[in-house]
Write a structure and sequence with these properties.
Layout: E1 3-7, H1 15-26, E2 31-36, H2 49-58, H3 63-83, H4 91-102, H5 107-126, H6 147-158, E3 164-167, E4 170-172, E5 178-180, H7 186-196, E6 201-206, E7 227-229, H8 230-238, H9 249-254, E8 259-263, E9 272-275, E10 289-302, H10 312-322, E11 336-342, H11 343-346, H12 350-361, E12 365-378, H13 388-398, E13 403-408, E14 414-420, H14 424-437
Parallel strand pairs: 1-2, 1-6, 2-3, 6-8, 7-9
Antiparallel strand pairs: 4-5, 8-9, 10-11, 10-12, 12-14, 13-14
Helix pairs in contact: 2-3, 2-5, 6-7, 10-12, 13-14
């Protein structure tokens, strides 16, 4: 068996965390290729190394400020190296970064240096080869990932090594400059490495013992999900569940590689398994999870005999296309149609959009429903359980919450509910409690 491991920022925050990581890696010889993040927060008021690097870049015009910030970054790594008892120095790397700062190198270069330095220290501590992500992860001119070249290069380079450490979060552009993924992109790097080496398992180590059924900031001590499919996770990730970077799902999903989310601080916990197909459709509860987001607006259109008017929906959607706007959901009835959009996307010209729709389709009425929150109730068990929707509606009715929109996917994997933003947290609590505390285990 071959395993690829990715460790998040909290797992590499200080020397003690580095030691935990090394113990985890060395515990199983199958754990061969390691992806490292930049050191994260050591305590709640601490600052992540990546944030300090970006602050340093943004203050590059002020030598005194940038020097002070960079000194803190140097000390952070020097303390880790010293506490690990390593005979090792990053002085040359620090000098190169300072030179890049003077020469006004790009923002992505500085954003990536935390991972670069962290991976170097971890490689030294493990006595593993260090492989620079810039030499094996490639982007196209337009900033998109060059998937084919990346996959081939990672596979070729790592075939030379039994073990290696690779920094997460970045790669290189065709001209050799550094390009980063979006924040949280170390998850993507780990997924790309797992796919390239045809790993049997991708272990994603963080500071939680797996995926929780609901945001713990909304529901205290929610249940953990032991197994979830890629499709279920995609639905929850889209609605804001943040344990795993959404884009990191796809490379391993293509290769049918399961992901195991584990806790560096509790390595004995089994965590959550993310799989292409669940071992069984049977789940502990009818639902797998509940997630949601605020900040949506619905355009509600009503017109008699709408269903008989050829091209009606096309003309409405053409209006959005001309304004370069994507819609999120499109629930409809015979004489009604709702278009759910992100409020931020239309805030500057929502009046123009509604006026253009009126010109194109001459509706009987058109109404904006603002300040909406969307909540996704997701679960593969829903398709085989009668009364799931009615249970959701009853939970909200009992909590005196008005439903403004309902949208169910054709796969019956999820039901999306629209509520007013002021009811957002109470709605999530009500649904969770109905399915978890209201169902026998």
């Amino acid at each position: 068996m071959l395993k690829v491991l990715k460790f998040g920022g909290s797992s590499l925050a200080d020397a003690n965390q580095f030691k935990k990581v090394a113990e985890i890696i060395k515990a199983e010889p199958e754990r061969r290729y390691i992806v490292a993040s930049a050191p994260g927060k050591r305590f709640s008021a601490d600052i992540k190394v990546t944030d300090m690097l970006l602050e340093c870049f943004e203050n590059s015009y002020d030598k005194d400020v940038s020097t002070e910030i960079f000194s803190k970054i140097e000390k952070r790594f020097e303390d880790i190296i010293s506490d690990l008892g390593l005979d090792f120095s990053l002085k040359e790397d620090f000098a190169n970064i300072k030179t890049a700062l003077i020469n006004h190198a790009g923002r992505d270069f500085f954003a990536s240096r935390g991972e670069f330095l962290s991976a170097k220290v971890l490689a030294k501590y493990l006595d593993y080869p260090f492989i620079d992500a810039g030499s094996c992860i490639f982007f196209n001119e337009n900033g998109s990932l060059n998937t084919e070249k990346t996959n081939e290069t990672i596979a070729r380079i790592l075939s030379r090594y039994d073990y290696a450490v690779i920094p997460g979060f970045y790669g290189s552009m065709p001209n050799g400059t550094i390009k980063t993924f979006s924040r949280g992109g170390s998850d993507i790097t780990g997924s790309l490495v797992a796919r390239a080496v045809q790993a049997d398992l991708y272990e994603n180590w963080t500071d939680v013992s797996g995926l929780l059924m609901v945001d713990p900031r909304i529901v205290e001590n929610p249940c953990k999900v032991t197994e979830i499919t890629y499709r279920e996770l995609r639905e929850l990730s889209y609605m804001g569940a943040t344990v795993l970077h959404e884009d990191a799902i796809f490379p391993v999903r293509i290769a049918n590689i399961p992901i195991n989310i584990r806790n560096t601080n509790a390595p004995e916990d089994s965590g959550t398994m993310i799989v292409s197909k669940a071992v069984t459709d049977s789940t502990e509860y009818t639902i797998t999870g509940v997630a949601g987001m605020k900040g949506f607006t619905a355009i509600y259109i009503e017109k008699d005999m709408m269903n008989s008017e050829v091209g009606f929906t096309r003309r409405v959607l053409e209006t959005l296309e001309e304004h370069n706007i994507c819609f999120e959901h499109l629930p409809s009835g015979i004489d009604t149609m709702s278009i759910v959009l992100r409020s931020a996307d239309i805030k500057d010209f929502k009046g123009n959009i509604t006026a253009d729709i009126v010109k194109r389709v001459n509706p009987d009425s058109i109404t904006l429903l603002e300040n909406l929150a969307l909540i996704a109730v997701v679960g593969r068990g829903m398709i085989r359980t009668a009364g799931t929707a009615s249970k959701i509606f009853k939970a909200l009715a009992d909590a005196n919450i008005n439903i403004r929109m309902i949208d169910q996917g054709s796969s019956e994997l999820n039901i999306i509910i629209g509520v007013e933003e002021k009811d957002y947290k109470n709605a999530i609590r009500a649904i969770y409690n109905k399915f978890v505390n209201g169902e026998s285990k």
